[in-house]
Structures are given as structure tokens and as C-alpha cells.
Precorrin-6A reductase (Rhizobium favelukesii), 256 residues
Amino acid sequence: MGKIRILMLGGTGEARALAQSLTDTGRYDVLLCLAGRTEKPSHQPAPVRIGGFGGAEGLAAFLQEGRFDLIIDATHPFAARISRNAGAASAASGIPALALRRPEWRAEPKDRWTHVATVAEAIGSLGSSPRRVFLAIGRQEAHRAEAAPQHFYLVRSVDPVAPPLILPNVCLVLDRGPYDVERETSLFRAHRIDALVTKNSGGSATYAKIEAARQLGIEVIMIARAPAAAMQTVATIEAMLAAIDHLFPSAMERGV
């Protein structure tokens, strides 16, 4: 029998590492799907498809037409729409689904966290008095800062924010993680940051900003994740590999 065909929804470092691990076994045929929101995506260890599917129905049809055996959702924890579509497509097609989700960050004793549910709520929680804000939420929702133009915003993203932000006092930084605490602390100090707005993405690649805020006593406006899609979820690549082996116990015989 042939290799097990896996459609992986990616875009994260974990997705790239998982695709590498699966490809290295020689037992799996992986197609890695990216949304295409990043202009220059990182090199990937498996064939790549870029673009959407046309909702849950389109994704279900793609799964069936491609004769995939499994769909893996390894997207960003805040990519809620594609995760919902993956769960719905799995249910409609009868093709099993697994999700890889890094654990959330947890506040430590010296952290000053304000918990909010949305980016809009985060911007509102900054208050009416001018503040100096590190807006570390990516470029897709950065425009929501325009609702509170009295603040200074340091905005960091992988690609330029488009259309440009209409703000009187904003500094744009193009950069890609991982970051280290020393650099993040220097960045905070250089721009005299007194508030960090971020999503609870989890993982280590961007955690340095949380550590830097802790060391400097800076308030963190932490945006919570939406409820996870209804599918079996694991937290690590090792756990995902074990779950796949459990789901397809004859994988080794099929692939060699």
C-alpha cells in the first residue's frame, strides 16, 4: 500500500517542524497548506499549496478529491476561522482531523496582566490618557489602534501593514522571530514602552517580550484565545506523532 496522505494546514514554526518529522519517516505524503498572508514564507520541508479552499465545503471536497487520509490543523492559535473549517470539513468528509496547539502562556507572580477577549477591547483598555504601546498582534488587526489615536504605537510585523495606519504617532518595525529577552528589553527601553498589547499565542518564539515586560514592570494587555475547534488536540510534535501512529497502526507496514 502507498503512503498515508496528510493535508496539513500550517504557517507556524511547529507546522514546519512537524512536516519535517513526518517527511523524514518516509511513511507519509504531506501537503502543507499556507494561507498566503506572509509575502516571503519560510522554506518548507514538504510540497506547499498557497491559498484558501472556499470554506468548509471546499476544504471537504479537496480532502476527498485528493484522497487524503488525515487533516492536521497546525495553524496559529488565533486562526479561528480555518480551524473551524477544518473541523467541519473533517465531519463532512469522514476524514479524521488532529490539531497541534502550543499551550497558552500563564501569568507568573511578577507579571502585570490585564485579560481581554478581543483586540478592540485591548485598545479600549489602554484608557484615554496617552500611553506608549508596543502593539505586537501582527498586521491583520493593527488598524484597530486607529480607534485610540492619542497613544504612541510601536507596531511589529513580518510584512508591512497595508493599508498604512492612519495614526499621528506610530513606529513600524519589520522583523521575524524568534526574539531574545535582551533585544526585547532594549526595544522597550528605546521607545519608552509602558504597555504591551499581545495575543496569548503561547510557545517560545515570541515569549521574550513577555519576559522583558516582566523585568521592566510593564503592563501586558493579554488577548485570550477563542474556544478551540472540536477535534482531538495535542500540545507537542511528539504527541502528534504518537497520535498519528495510534490512528494508523499499520503506517509502518504501508510505507516500507
